[in-house]
Design goal:
mainly alpha; ABC transporter involved in vitamin B12 uptake, BtuC; two-stranded antiparallel ribbon; 14 helices; 76% helix; globular
C-alpha cells in the first residue's frame, strides 16, 4: 500500500508541475481568442505588433525581477531605476551632447551600480530585500525629479534614439520585427542561456532554494546576490531607455507601477515568491499575459479603474495558486 501511495503522490507532483507550466500559456491563448471574438481586431497583425512593442519594457524588467525572485529576493526599485535611466540617457544626449551609444553605456552602468547598491544593502547591510529596494525606489525617483527638474526631456529629434521606437530588423522566419522587440528577444535568450548553462544560474536556484544549505555546499551566496541585484538594475535601465524611446521623451513619472507589473508577470509565469522555482521563459509568457490583458481591455473600452481591479484579482489568484502548490509539495 505504501508503494502505491508514494506512486500516486509522485504522479500528482508530475501532473501539478505540468499544469503549472502549461496553465499560463493556455490562459494566454484563451484570452487572445476571447478578445478577438469580442472586438474582431485583437488578432490583427497591426494590433499584435502593438502588443509586443508596448510591453517590451515590462518583459525586460520581468527578466531581471525573475532573477531576483529566483534567488529568494524582491526588487521594488526597478520602476524608479527605469525612470532615472531614461532621464540620464536623454539628458546626456540633449543637454551634454554625448552620442547615443556612449550614453547607453553610461546609463546601463548607472543601472548596474544602483542594483549593486541594492545588493549591498541586502548582503552587508542585512536589510530585508523589501526594505532595501523600497528605499532605493524612493531615492531613484527623487534623483529623477531632481535631474529633470520635474520636466520631460524630449528626444523626438534624436534619430538614433527614436529608431528604437520606429525602426525594425528583417529577421529569418519572423520577417520585419520592431527594433525594441528584437532587444527583448535577445535579452530573454541570453538570460535563459545564462540560467541554464552557467554555474551562476545553478547558484541562483540553489540560493533561492535554501540560502544556508547553499552556503554549506560552497555556493558564494553573497556574490550571487550582489550580481543578481546588479543585473536587475541594469535590465531596468535598459527598459528605461526603450520606454523613453517609445514615448519620445524622458518623463519624470515613467515607470510608476512597473515593479508591480513585473512581479505579477513573474508570478503568473510560475516564478515562486518563495524563491528557487520558475524560469525566464515562464516569466516572459506571464509578461505577455499581462500585456494581452491590458490591450484586450483597452479594445473593449474597459475603464482604467476597472482594469486595475481585474489585474489585482489576477495577481491575487496567481499568488494563491503559488502558495497552494508550495503547501502541496511540502506535505508528506
Amino acid at each position: 500500500m505504501m508503494t502505491a501511495y508514494w506512486g500516486n503522490r509522485r504522479w500528482q507532483h508530475v501532473a501539478l508541475d505540468l499544469l503549472r507550466r502549461s496553465m499560463v500559456l493556455l490562459v494566454l491563448i484563451a484570452l487572445a481568442y476571447y478578445f478577438d471574438a469580442k472586438t474582431g481586431r485583437f488578432l490583427q497583425e497591426r494590433n499584435l505588433r502593438n502588443v509586443a512593442q508596448q510591453n517590451v519594457h515590462i518583459l525586460i524588467v520581468t527578466v531581471g525581477m525573475t532573477l531576483v525572485m529566483l534567488s529568494g529576493g524582491i526588487d521594488l526599485s526597478v520602476g524608479s531605476i527605469a525612470a532615472l535611466a531614461g532621464a540620464v540617457s536623454a539628458g546626456l544626449i540633449v543637454n551634454e551632447g554625448l552620442g547615443f551609444w556612449p550614453s547607453v553605456v553610461v546609463t546601463l552602468g548607472v543601472g548596474f551600480g544602483l542594483g549593486l547598491v541594492n545588493g549591498g544593502l541586502v548582503v552587508w547591510g542585512r536589510l530585508p530585500p523589501f526594505v532595501a529596494t523600497l528605499s532605493m525606489m524612493g531615492v531613484a525617483r527623487g534623483l529623477t525629479l531632481l535631474y529633470t527638474e520635474n520636466k520631460p526631456i524630449s528626444i523626438a529629434k534624436v534619430k538614433a534614439y527614436t529608431f528604437w521606437r520606429r525602426g525594425s530588423f528583417d529577421l529569418p522566419l519572423l520577417g520585419q520585427t520592431p527594433a525594441p522587440v528584437v532587444v527583448a528577444l535577445v535579452v530573454v535568450v541570453l538570460v535563459m542561456v545564462l540560467m541554464r548553462y552557467t554555474r551562476y544560474g545553478l547558484h541562483v536556484y540553489a540560493v533561492g532554494g535554501g540560502e544556508e544549505t547553499a552556503r554549506l555546499a560552497g555556493v558564494p551566496v553573497d556574490r550571487v546576490k550582489l550580481l543578481t541585484y546588479a543585473l536587475s538594475g541594469m535590465l531596468a535601465a535598459l527598459a528605461g531607455i526603450l520606454l523613453t524611446a517609445r514615448v519620445y521623451s524622458a518623463q519624470p513619472r515613467n515607470g510608476v507601477g512597473l515593479e508591480l507589473e513585473a512581479i505579477a508577470a513573474a508570478v503568473l509565469g510560475g516564478v515562486s515568491l518563495f524563491g528557487g522555482v520558475g524560469s525566464v521563459l515562464g516569466a516572459m509568457i506571464g509578461g505577455l499575459l499581462i500585456g494581452v490583458l491590458a490591450n484586450g481591455m483597452n479594445l473593449m473600452r474597459v475603464e482604467s479603474y476597472q482594469q486595475e481591479m481585474i489585474k489585482g484579482v489576477v495577481l491575487a489568484a496567481a499568488v494563491m495558486v503559488d502558495m497552494y502548490t508550495k503547501r502541496f509539495e511540502r506535505r508528506d
